[in-house]
Amino acid sequence: MLSGVGMNVNPWTLKVILPVGISFYTFHGLSYVIDIYQGRIKAERNFIDYSLFVSFFPLLVAGPIERATHLLPQIQTQRNFSYKNQ
Fold it and tell me: Can you give the pTM of this predicted structure?
């Protein structure tokens, strides 16, 4: 599929990179489900907030699996942009 758009990808590279990415999303999703099961948070009804939590890229690069109890409240906080606040 990628070669159809002009990208040449070594199959060995996909065998290495793909499991790393899948494991991150799997464990991140599991931490969310565990937090709900243990009653630490309520299930997120907003699909966009949930999707942002699961796919938040800086966590993939920077460090450990972040718990939903820490990151979801930050995502849900109302933010107002103003040039004066820079």
Answer: 0.57
